[in-house]
Amino acid sequence: MANPLTIADLKSLAQRRVPKMFFDYADSGAWTESTYQANESDFAKIKLRQRVLVDMTNRTLETTMIGQKVSMPVALAPTGMTGMQHADGEMLAARAAEEFGVPFTLSTMSICSIEDVASVTTKPFWFQLYVMRDKDFVLNLINRAKAAKCSALVLTADLQILGQRHKDLRNGLSAPPKFTPKHIWQMATRPFWCLDMLQTKRRTFGNIVGHAKNVSDLSSLSSWTAEQFDPQLSWADVAWIKEQWGGPLIIKGICDVEDAKSAAETGADAIIVSNHGGRQLDGAPSSISMLEPIVDAVGHKIEVHLDGGIRSGQDVLKAIALGAKGTYIGRPFLYGLGAMGKEGVTLALNILRKEMDVTMALCGKRDIKDVNASILLGRQ
Ligand SMILES: Cc1cc2nc3c(=O)[nH]c(=O)nc-3n(C[C@H](O)[C@H](O)[C@H](O)COP(=O)(O)O)c2cc1C
What we know:
By secondary structure, the protein is of the alpha/beta class. The protein has one domain: TIM Barrel. It has 16 helices and ten strands. The protein has helices spanning 7-17, 20-26, 34-44, 89-100, 114-120, 135-147, 166-171, 181-188, 191-198, 221-228, 235-245, 257-265, 287-298, 313-321, 331-340, 342-362; strands at 63-65, 68-70, 74-76, 105-106, 126-129, 152-156, 249-254, 270-273, 303-307, 326-329. The strands form two sheets. Strands 3-10-9-8-7-6-5-4 form an eight-stranded parallel sheet. A two-stranded antiparallel sheet has the order 1-2. Helix 6 (135-147) links the parallel strand 5 and strand 6 (152-156). Helix 12 crosses helix 13. The chain is globular, with a radius of gyration of 20 Å. The structure holds flavin mononucleotide. The site of flavin mononucleotide has 24 residues, from helix 2 and helix 15.
């Protein structure tokens, strides 16, 4: 495919370039994957209003997320093991996001460390925190994010235990990959991926190995999660994290009105309506279906963002129309990265921007800040 035009094109290219275990890690949801699928398919149910003969000149997608300027309301979501989709993946994606003018969020479970990403960026990025049982380690992560001048902390609330993704278990997923005949075959059939990977030293969890007590080698995400993620994390801990961090705080993984109300009480700056891309509670509603009730309940108190299922600029626009102040993409940028490295991330962002811009114009709007439910059919 010489000229990828859609996120789906990037997905097929990534499948051809990335070893199966890592492609599957991105392209999977928990158990039956019903929530993963609903995240995407529920966007298609929302119809746009076609408006004509209105001035379409001087359009802009620029806005703010938590008060920070963005060239369009789309951030890169935190994703674990991004450096396994492509060598040095987090560093490449962070640079692409910086050049594009959108936030990059580094996962706790990244391959490149906070310091690696800071070393190749010139503007602040965001850091996503998983709270571990070992509070010294959590404090240390927060302090490292401060030292790297991260401009927001994204606290993930929906992964105190790990949802099961069958493909990861069947594939024996680990970072670095195991050297069994099956894994060697998966890598041998992806020579360009291997060549890039041979040239980097970053092949395991860069924020953890060498930083957490007694962790000099860590390969299995699931065993670390089972041992270390704090199942007792509660709303009371959010106050402690907010105090330790002292900067803008975003709570990620809210998919229920009652939880949104509790989150708004914490004094956080924003919440992300999210079900972790359908990777945690299979059977939970799609994020887009929960956006409006959550905005109605807490939108006057706290900025509401959304992720999950965005595969086009039209999807972003629909989320903005339903009250989101910003959105995040996970898989779309991972597919771009797997397919073409940094250029692929930029291409994914460009695809979304173009689709959003043209759709906004055809809905009769020129400024993303004026987009509201009036662009949706049956909502005017
Ligand atoms: C491969 C992969 C790894 C992820 N790892 C993390 C993570 O480390 N921390 C986190 O908060 N969310 C993680 N997520 C969830 C994303 O931040 C985001 O909620 C989700 O990808 C949004 O859905 P989308 O992929 O349909 O855009 C991950 C998602 C994927 C696809």
